[in-house]
């Protein structure tokens, strides 16, 4: 009978050890679950920070781009202004000197003075 009681006693001890191991495993799983939750939370925080940084950089880029594009449009407006000014200046000059130049041209064409050219050589 003692062997039976020893067997029962060993069986109870083995059962107790198994129960203790199960409790320990549950505690570890609880820690692992907390770690997983913390890792997930850290990941979410990191993603939020990354998104915030990305939005900030996109905003800065947009401002720089608008400055550059704005200054380019200002340059094109300035070139257009200068071009129109130069065209007006040339048109004014044309209108101012047109009569004088036409008179000189007509005088040269209409007042022909016949004569022998200085480079002409007599071949006789």
UniProtKB/TrEMBL annotation:
GO terms for molecular function: ATP hydrolysis activity; proton-transporting ATPase activity, rotational mechanism. InterPro entries: V-ATPase_G. GO terms for cellular component: synaptic vesicle membrane; vacuolar proton-transporting V-type ATPase, V1 domain. The keyword Cell membrane does not apply. Residues 1-40 are annotated as: Disordered. Keywords: Hydrogen ion transport, Ion transport, Transport. Gene3D superfamilies: 1.20.5.2950. GO terms for biological process: synaptic vesicle lumen acidification. Residues 14-27 have a biased composition (Basic and acidic residues). Pfam families: V-ATPase_G (PF03179). The keyword Transport applies. It comes from the Eukaryota. V-ATPase is a heteromultimeric enzyme made up of two complexes: the ATP-hydrolytic V1 complex and the proton translocation V0 complex. The V1 complex consists of three catalytic AB heterodimers that form a heterohexamer, three peripheral stalks each consisting of EG heterodimers, one central rotor including subunits D and F, and the regulatory subunits C and H. The proton translocation complex V0 consists of the proton transport subunit a, a ring of proteolipid subunits c9c'', rotary subunit d, subunits e and f, and the accessory subunits ATP6AP1/Ac45 and ATP6AP2/PRR. Subunit of the V1 complex of vacuolar(H+)-ATPase (V-ATPase), a multisubunit enzyme composed of a peripheral complex (V1) that hydrolyzes ATP and a membrane integral complex (V0) that translocates protons. V-ATPase is responsible for acidifying and maintaining the pH of intracellular compartments and in some cell types, is targeted to the plasma membrane, where it is responsible for acidifying the extracellular environment. Belongs to the V-ATPase G subunit family. This is V-type proton ATPase subunit G.
